[in-house]
Design a protein that fits this description.
The protein is mainly α. 75% of the residues lie in helices and 2% in strands.
Length: 465
Amino acid sequence: MSLLVVIAALSFLMVAAYRGHSVILFAPLAALGAVLLTDPSLVAPMFTGLFMEKMAGFLKLYFPVFLLGAVFGKVVELSGFSRSIVVAVIALIGRRQAIPAIVGVSALLTYGGVSLFVVVFAVYPFAAEIFRESQLPKRLIPATIALGAFSFSMDALPGTPQIQNIIPIPFFKTNLYAAPWLGSLGALFILCAGLLYLQWRCRCAAARGEKYGFAPLQEPEPFSDRKLPSPFIAILPLLLVGVMSKVFTLAIPKFYGNTHNFVPTVVGQAAPVTQEISKIAAIWAVEAALLVGILTVLLLAWKPVATRFTEGSKGAISGALLASMNTASEYGFGAIIAALPGFRIIADALRSIPHPLLNEAITVTALAGVTGSASGGLSIALGAMADTFLLNAQAAGISPEVMHRIASMASGGMDTLPHNGAVITLLTVTGLTHRQSYGDIFAITVIKTAAVFVVIAIYHLTGLV
């Protein structure tokens, strides 16, 4: 019964999200409905002590990232920088290469350490411009950005600084570059298969006479000034965000140390506030990098931005509020589901898979799908079963580096189900619905999940690490 409760809650939320209902409303309803069917006395305590705690904790950490990311994307759009880059890209590689161009920009930012949510805000104006110029269906933009930001650059490429590649390190005593050959081959498979799929979808749309289409929500306004900025100037803020994110990530821990204390008042006997810098340095780094990017755009294009900033920023801020609340609600939902007895049944059943790599891959991707979070599913799986994974791997002669790479890649597999926070953010930012765009996002999800098993097969056939 407890297992059916978890499955019902997950199915209910996925259907609600797919049908366009607000996850902010339906995530707590689904989570608390599951608690009600499990132990009615825990509904109020788990709502306050778990759902709201996790939701508020997520907003405390990440809302500034959402807000600054949305403002950065908006000023890039208002300045005409997005159109300048699009025009230059079209002139360089041709209109038919719009999808590879957006995938490349998204992947570059993600591999540079920029948060996935920020990548969505930053790349969307470019994507809208180039898809509009090339008359490709707007509904394919989410899948295109997802291929660049949510797949190979997030967890397959060795060295990527995204959290999905960081979480396995303490469990397997590895580093960011674990299993470089396997990771690179997996990334190549995802990139090639994803591009082939998206290009096929474009050809199908062209055969039907489908063009860009009209979606009034979140549609960037075409830049009206005749004279566009130089593309070399236009790309500078985007590059600075990626570079400065890395610089601040290295500099902040050196400046503040491992922990930092301050007294929040000059008078009185207030207790000091202590913060673990290692847990928040990456977030501070992204926020600082985005501020640098925004200030750079204002410095380089003050006049066109200033004349339209008041109205333009309202939409950006509304989008940031909605996207962050959606994702925070998902975070609270995942926390409650992970605390239910039915979730333990799922975790225990996954332990019975005999092959070490298959066991790890299926366990991680299944838990990521249930919680709707790659990092959440990965943390739960490794926190509960890392020792078992390692013991089984050692008995089979499998390197911890391979375990690291498989766990990391598997976390970014089935996590992007309809209730995933990043998926909902992506659709919110682009002004599209699940009905319009999720089918293609799911196809990328299937390719990404299949890549994990392709990598396992390559390892067994070649022994490459």
